[in-house]
Design goal:
With 381 residues, the chain is of the alpha/beta class. 47% of the residues lie in helices and 9% in strands. It contains 14 helices and seven strands. Strands 5-6-4-3-2-1-7 form a seven-stranded mixed beta sheet. A hairpin with a 5-residue loop joins strand 1 (50-53) and strand 2 (59-62). 35% of the residues are buried.
Length: 381
């Protein structure tokens, strides 16, 4: 029932999303928010979830991939400076302060203007669901400069419900939302929220890596050092889901093109857990090479290359030349046993690879040799 209702609602042109509505910063903000939300839901032991990107609003989260009963809709809007205003969120005039005796003579904006506003679009989507329990959240890195009826301010609160607005704002909002269906029931503003998050819009990935590291320390401590690779691999999987603009013929096609569920998240986590974090082994070998005469610049370059190799392996994005180098290393190692003194051995093998791959950096070739040698010594898979 829930799946059928979702697909039906998604086919309504005034409610559905078609992708491409954000600039690059907005896209990165949306993807990283989704990733962090998945980490949060998995940490809270959610039984199931399904994220659908650019299907209904920016992101829709169903509580089940098979038989959803609840849906949360999210509009995600980054803001480079300042706070959101009432008019910016609602496209309505700010109501008169009831404490002021002298009334303003300014002309009010028509109530129907709310239909093109962030709050109006969110409400219209939330209200379209009659079978599933639904709610909507406007999420941004900036708060909204609104004083709530309990004295709190939406600019500094992490999340507030719009039914907590002062009476003059609440009455105006309800009247405006009624313009969607003048003969319908009274709009329920308790289903609408404004949420402020701490994700930096200029460079959100390091923040996501920090959150992933926290998650892995609790869930899989041996892999906490691979948080960056984990985040990058998830972002690679999420990125195409909000970019598809073709019309879907059914929910299964929509799920394939726009969906990322808990089983996808767990598959990515299982892939990570099958790979033992090689960092401690890298450290041992690089420390040995430094003692044997490699300078700090050489060691740093190799370490960076090793990190890139690990990232590509985890995300499954090896380039053609990387695969070729790895294959040649596997041929060289059996006929060049690892000796107690590493430096002459490493330089000999690096020279051999350099003849086959003259355009590759020496640090990258050294890194592939060390990676292959360590895999010989320790079963990393």
């Amino acid at each position: 029932m829930g799946i059928s209702e979702f697909f039906t609602v998604s086919q309504r042109a005034e409610i559905s999303e078609t992708g491409g509505g954000h600039n690059q910063k907005g896209i990165e903000f949306q993807k990283n928010w989704a990733l962090i939300k998945m980490l949060e839901m998995e940490s809270n032991n959610s039984e199931d979830f399904l994220f659908l990107f650019e299907a209904v609003q920016d992101i829709a989260i169903l509580d089940s991939e098979i038989d959803p009963k609840k849906i949360k809709l999210f509009q995600l809007k980054k803001k480079d400076r300042g706070e959101w205003s009432w008019s910016g969120l609602s496209c309505l005039s700010k109501p008169e302060d009831p404490q002021k005796k002298k009334k303003s003579k300014r002309k009010s904006i028509p109530l129907e203007s709310i239909k093109s506003s962030p709050i109006g679009k969110l409400y219209n989507a939330v209200d379209a669901f009659k079978t599933m329990s639904s709610e909507g959240r406007f999420v941004s890195n900036s708060g909204c400069d609104l004083l709530m009826k309990d004295g709190s301010n939406a600019a500094t609160s992490t999340m507030v419900s719009l039914d907590m607005l002062p009476t003059e704002f609440s009455d105006l909002l309800v009247k405006a939302l009624q313009s969607f269906d003048p003969n319908g029931s009274l709009p329920d503003t308790s289903k609408l929220y404004i949420e402020k998050v701490s994700i930096p819009v200029d460079d959100p990935v390091p923040y996501s890596i920090g959150k992933a590291c926290e998650f892995l320390r609790n869930r899989s401590p041996l892999h906490a050092g691979q948080a960056q690779s984990f985040v990058e691999s998830l972002l690679i999987k999420i990125t195409p889901l909000g970019a598809r603009t073709e019309t879907c013929r059914n929910f299964e096609e929509m799920r394939y093109r726009h969906g990322f569920g808990r089983k996808n998240f767990q598959a990515a986590l299982n892939s990570l857990e099958k790979i033992i974090d090689p960092t401690p082994y890298y450290d041992s070998w690089l420390n040995q090479l430094q003692k044997e005469g490699f300078n700090l610049i050489e060691i740093t370059a190799i370490r960076i290359a090793l990190t890139e190799i690990s990232r590509r392996k985890l995300s499954g994005t090896n380039l053609k030349e990387d695969i070729e180098i790895e294959m040649e290393v596997k041929k060289l190692l059996p006929v060049n046993p690892i000796p107690p003194i590493l430096q002459p051995w490493l330089e000999t093998l690096t020279a051999s690879l350099a003849e086959m791959f003259p355009h590759e950096k020496k640090a990258k070739l050294r890194a592939y040799i060390l990676c292959g040698a360590i895999e010989q010594c320790v079963d990393l898979t």
